[in-house]
């Protein structure tokens, strides 16, 4: 079991392309013991597209299990991405579509919330998709955000 945890931690560390900064949180469910359940808001910069920042809101389970890092967070998240600086269009055109740009664990080992980037060349936009999955079964709950890159080609 220890080897599995170490391997999962190593893979999560390597796979997580972007680092998020905490913006704030709001409590949505009171817990008698431990922290309340919260909705966290984080921001991360797209590591391959400087000039794009994505704001991610996601539920985080509190209570004793949440405080100890043993709780499984709900598979619900929302995303809003915006252009916050100049974007190199030539670099964007060379990107692989469907690339994971952000990942955050939603349980001790098997569940994660992730953000995947797509490039729609016809409309000249970047599309960011967030969803939560598990090793065995995922959730169809998702959210997208679109960043226009200028006039369509």
User: Could you describe the largest sheet, including whether it forms a barrel?
Assistant: 4 strands, antiparallel
Radius of gyration: 17 Å
Gross morphology is: elongated
Number of helices: 3
Summed over residues and divided by their number, the pLDDT gives a mean of 79
Strand content range: 35-45%
Could you say which structural class the secondary elements and strand pairing correspond to? alpha+beta
Number of strands: 8
* Number of structural units classed as domains: 1
Low-confidence stretches: 1-16
Strand ordering within the main sheet: 1-2-3-4
Q: What is the straight-line distance between the termini?
A: 52 Å
Oligomer: single chain
**Helicity level:** 10-25%
How would you describe this structure to a colleague?
The protein has 153 residues and is of the alpha+beta class. The protein has one domain. It is 16% helix and 44% strand. It contains 3 helices and 8 strands; from the N terminus they run αβββαβαββββ. The strands form 2 sheets. The chain has a 4-stranded antiparallel beta sheet, with no helix packed on it. Strands 5-6-7-8 form a 4-stranded antiparallel beta sheet, with no helix packed on it. A hairpin with a 7-residue loop joins strand 7 and strand 8. The longest helix is centred in the N-terminal third of the chain and has 14 residues. The radius of gyration is 17 Å and the shape is elongated. The N terminus is likely disordered.
